[in-house]
Design brief:
The chain is mainly α. The chain is built from 10 helices and 2 strands, in the order H-H-H-E-E-H-H-H-H-H-H-H. The protein has helices at 9-23, 35-42, 46-58, 86-114, 117-135, 141-154, 158-166, 168-171, 189-200, 204-224; strands at 62-65, 69-72. The protein has a two-stranded antiparallel ribbon with strand order 1-2. 26% of the residues are buried.
């Protein structure tokens, strides 16, 4: 039996905004309620709403005009029931991948220089759990995400970690059924081990080389999906 995938608050809010657009039959150029009004409508905090808006803006569903408001951009291009059309989602994931390469790549480099023995042991346990889930045919998305978050923390830079977390809803699209397929990035499994080997050996060059292979693999999969 498949496990129910958990959704973050910003993801739920973005779906509610999409539902609102459908229910009100809004069209391109129509204005959405203000941030304050939507926090009251949906009963959420401003941070969750703003992250949801960033996601919707990233997929071209809305446009945020500073000082003027939030506008519907293109209702005809997207399925507002919650899934983006495959070609649009592919472009979206590729755009986010460029940002991920830059930020997470730096985290990998720093982690290879600063990782502690305790963090090495934690990531080793994480990979062991990853292997068990994979062998059992269970979903590995959340343990995969935990592994990458562990590397970010091992980088020892709170500002870099905060930047990565600031677009967590976009980042987590790689782990929560990208393109509607929970197994899409299974081919990257081996690079988690080789990248970690570089980090644990405190070899930034090796770690970054394997990270690049992981990113290249993801990019190839997305482009040919």
């Amino acid at each position: 039996m498949a496990k129910i995938q958990k959704q973050t608050m910003p993801e739920l809010v973005s779906q509610e905004i999409q539902n609102y657009i459908e229910e009100k039959e809004l069209r391109e150029g129509d204005k959405l309620p203000s941030v304050e009004a939507m926090t009251n409508m949906f009963g959420v905090g401003r941070s969750s709403l703003r992250e949801a808006l960033r996601y919707l803006e990233a997929i071209d569903a809305i446009t945020v005009v500073n000082g003027k408001g939030i506008y519907v951009r293109d209702v005809g291009t997207y399925r507002f029931a919650g899934k983006i059309k495959i070609e649009k989602e592919k472009q979206f994931l590729l755009s986010i991948l460029e940002v991920r390469r830059a930020l997470e790549g730096k985290a990998v480099e720093l982690a290879a220089k600063r990782i502690t023995q305790a963090q090495i042991e934690e990531l080793t346990e994480c990979l062991n759990e990853y292997a068990k889930l994979k062998e059992a045919g269970e979903h590995t998305a959340q343990i995969d995400l935990a592994f990458h978050r562990g590397i970010m923390k091992a980088a020892g830079n709170t500002i870099l970690y905060g930047v990565l977390e600031s677009f967590s809803v976009l980042y987590e699209k790689f782990f929560n059924e990208p393109l509607g397929d929970t197994r899409l990035f299974d081919e990257t499994y081996e690079y988690h081990h080789t990248m970690f080997a570089g980090i644990a050996a405190r070899d930034p060059e090796l770690a970054l080389s394997e990270f690049d292979k992981l990113m290249n693999c993801i990019e190839d999969i997305i482009r040919t999906y």
